[in-house]
């Protein structure tokens, strides 16, 4: 008897709850509409999860598209132009026209041709220096964090020195000592001075990984140290390495432009920085030749902005708390409209 | 105290490393600064004159002796004689330029740090709101617009086209340097655009940094307790979360001084502002090595002092450091 009543009353409340939920809770389609959530495009499900998260991130993809456009422009741009970037192609300061898409400089060189050829060197030097700096930072950060002790003390000292020494003034000293600082020399100096931040973050991360079980078990199984570093620890560093790479590249491209702009580079090399240098030296602004100065400016700004967007998406994917999208605002509004606390977000 | 002593020891070591860099770099490169001077006389110098020129550049004797002389001269603030503004000593040029650079960088850092941090606090507190999702990406993107370009845009718009601001100089040349309203006003008027361009490329970094640190703190136990106690939003926001979030910001503020100084060097070039950057630019053109090396030492010292100040500020703000 008691058994039956108990079970029936239990199933009654259960049924009531189910009915209440069914009447109050909106369907998944309704929820998605209210929160403005779109279904992920089907093709992303075939990608590995990390890449899929990146491919569906609008900021990151915008950045990648802009970067690809700039790279394609500097690869194929020179082929579209009949002019030699180092030679006079027309009169001084010719307005943009059919013949000269972006006009000519005061020396009569074609701006479009220079911009395309300059992109090749500027982007190569920037990405090369950024990659080298990120690799140095990775090697030093992981070694300092993993080996610890005396090695850590010495490496951390050098990391701190590199962080404290002011970058641009140091590069100015080195670059003036070299007779003509070609873009490659500048890139090498930037790589040698730009690894401080990524080494520091990677060291901190390695310190916390070193005591995890999977590293301990690899050690107990007698695996070689380099194998533990490469196979066990490195894959967990990928996101830090990526953001170090992106930030390092931004810093390198901007610093290269700044150095060449203040006249430290080889003035005969063709890069976006030297284009700015000549435009400033030839008083392009004062003589109203806007087409000589704005194209390299816009190219540098676009590259920087695109890389910042990529970095934003890397940040958001590795730490979803940092996401700055309207979605979270909508979720908060949704929760509080249903009387739930929205403080967790 | 032990914390501060250890930091102080590190700063001394870093300073010596900077001196050593400065000493070694020209000696490792093929050819030395004196070669250029000697070559410019086209062989009209005799043995003793060549030796005297090399002596004045500190290039005589063994490497160790040269090093000791160099360190000694650095501590006597003797940076040699400028070749651009011969026979002015380099030190006096350096300090004249550094004063104006410090005016620019000091104003820019103060503005960027305050405004950026306040925006970051606001963005983190209303995460996902309009302000956060709109201004955070834009402010950070400004960071990627290098100082050179922002300065060029401002110079073109406000100095050349609209003519609201002067085309150069740090103050009205008719005014004598004095501590009065007119002179300071003129200095501020001339500094507006350079400061604005350094400010524009740096405040986004403080916005993002403050926002990210704050968001990670918002779910911590002490914040939940403070809210459970019923404290007002503003009190939790500023006295609990922001106060903790500002500690790492102060450390990176000191590290960023070097970057800001680099930005100032470029900005001065555009605005024709008589700071360290302007002089460095002319020094690069004429390969005035003593000045170029001097600016590195001076700026390194500035960054080290800033770091020391930030350590002291951290000890004052964070009681946990006082015990260590």
UniProtKB/TrEMBL annotation, chain B:
Gene3D superfamilies registered for this protein in UniProt: MetI-like
Tagged with keyword Flavoprotein: no
Gene Ontology annotations for the cellular component aspect, listed alphabetically: plasma membrane
UniProt-listed InterPro entries: MetI-like, MetI-like_sf
UniProt domain ABC transmembrane type-1: residue ranges: 98-310
Cell location: Cell membrane
Ranges that cross the membrane: 7-25, 93-119, 140-159, 179-206, 245-266, 296-317
One GO term of the biological process aspect: transmembrane transport
Keywords recorded for this protein, A-Z: Membrane, Transmembrane, Transmembrane helix, Transport
Keyword Repressor included in the entry's annotation: no
Membrane disposition: Multi-pass membrane protein
Pfam families cross-referenced by the UniProt entry: BPD_transp_1
UniProt superkingdom: Bacteria
Similarity field: Belongs to the binding-protein-dependent transport system permease family.
Annotated protein name in UniProt: ABC transporter permease
Species name: Devosia ureilytica
């Amino acid at each position: 008897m008691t058994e039956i009543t108990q079970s029936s009353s239990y199933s009654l409340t259960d049924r009531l709850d189910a009915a209440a939920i069914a009447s109050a809770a909106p369907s998944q389609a309704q929820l998605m509409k209210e929160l403005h959530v779109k279904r992920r495009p089907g093709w992303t499900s075939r990608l590995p999860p990390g890449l899929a998260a990146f491919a569906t991130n609008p900021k990151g993809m915008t950045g990648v598209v802009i970067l690809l456009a700039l790279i394609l422009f500097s690869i194929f741009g020179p082929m579209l132009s009949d002019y030699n970037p180092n030679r006079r192609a027309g009169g001084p300061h010719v307005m943009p026209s059919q013949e000269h898409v972006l006009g000519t400089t005061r020396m009569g060189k074609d701006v479009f041709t220079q911009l395309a050829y300059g992109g090749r060197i500027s982007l190569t030097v920037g990405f090369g220096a950024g990659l080298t700096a990120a690799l140095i930072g990775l090697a030093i950060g992981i070694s300092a964090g993993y080996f610890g002790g005396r090695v850590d003390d010495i490496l951390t000292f050098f990391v701190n020195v590199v962080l404290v020494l002011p970058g641009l003034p140091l590069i100015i000293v080195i670059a003036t000592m070299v007779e003509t600082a070609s873009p490659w020399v500048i890139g090498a100096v930037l790589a040698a001075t730009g690894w401080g931040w990524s080494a520091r973050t990677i060291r901190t991360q390695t310190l916390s990984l070193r005591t995890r079980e999977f590293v301990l078990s690899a050690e107990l199984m007698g695996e070689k140290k380099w194998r533990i570093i490469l196979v066990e620890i490195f894959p967990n560093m990928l996101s830090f390495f990526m953001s170090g790479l992106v930030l390092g590249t931004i810093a390198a491209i901007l610093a290269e432009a700044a150095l060449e702009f203040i006249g430290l580079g080889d003035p005969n090399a063709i890069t976006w920085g030297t284009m700015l240098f000549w435009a400033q030296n030839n008083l392009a602004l004062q003589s109203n030749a806007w087409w000589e100065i704005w194209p390299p400016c816009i190219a540098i700004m676009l590259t920087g902005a695109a890389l910042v967007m990529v970095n934003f998406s890397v940040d958001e994917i590795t730490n979803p708390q940092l996401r700055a999208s309207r979605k979270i605002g909508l979720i908060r509004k949704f929760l509080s409209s249903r009387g739930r606390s929205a403080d967790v977000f | 105290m032990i914390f501060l002593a250890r930091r102080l020891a590190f700063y001394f070591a870093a300073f010596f490393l900077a001196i050593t860099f400065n000493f070694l770099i020209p000696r490792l490169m093929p050819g030395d600064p004196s070669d250029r001077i000697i070559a410019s006389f086209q062989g009209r110098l005799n043995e003793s004159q060549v030796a005297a020129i090399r002596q004045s550049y500190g290039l005589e004797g063994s490497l160790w002796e040269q090093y000791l002389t160099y360190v000694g001269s650095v501590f006597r603030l003797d940076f040699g004689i400028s070749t651009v503004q011969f026979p002015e000593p380099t030190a006096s040029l350096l300090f004249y330029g550094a004063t104006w650079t410090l005016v620019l960088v000091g104003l820019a850092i103060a503005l960027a740090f305050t405004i950026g941090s306040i925006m970051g606090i606001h963005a983190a507190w209303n995460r996902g709101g309009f302000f956060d999702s709109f201004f955070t990406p834009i402010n950070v993107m400004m960071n990627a617009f290098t100082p050179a370009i922002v300065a060029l845009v401002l110079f073109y718009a406000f100095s050349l086209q609209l003519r609201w601001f002067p085309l150069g100089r740090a103050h009205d040349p008719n005014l004598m340097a004095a501590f009065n309203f007119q002179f300071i006003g003129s200095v501020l008027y001339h500094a507006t655009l350079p400061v604005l361009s350094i400010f524009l490329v740096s405040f986004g970094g403080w916005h993002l940094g403050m926002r990210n640190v704050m968001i990670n703190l918002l779910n911590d136990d002490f914040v939940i307790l403070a809210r459970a106690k019923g404290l007002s939003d503003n009190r939790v926001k500023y006295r609990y979360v922001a106060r903790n979030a500002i500690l790492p910001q102060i450390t990176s503020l000191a590290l960023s001084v070097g970057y800001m100084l680099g930005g100032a060097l470029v900005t001065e070039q555009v605005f024709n502002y008589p700071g360290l950057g302007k002089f460095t630019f002319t020094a690069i053109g004429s390969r005035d090595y003593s000045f170029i090396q001097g600016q590195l030492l001076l700026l390194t010292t500035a960054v080290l002092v800033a770091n020391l100040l930030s350590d002291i500020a951290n000890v004052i703000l964070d009681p946990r450091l006082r015990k260590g």
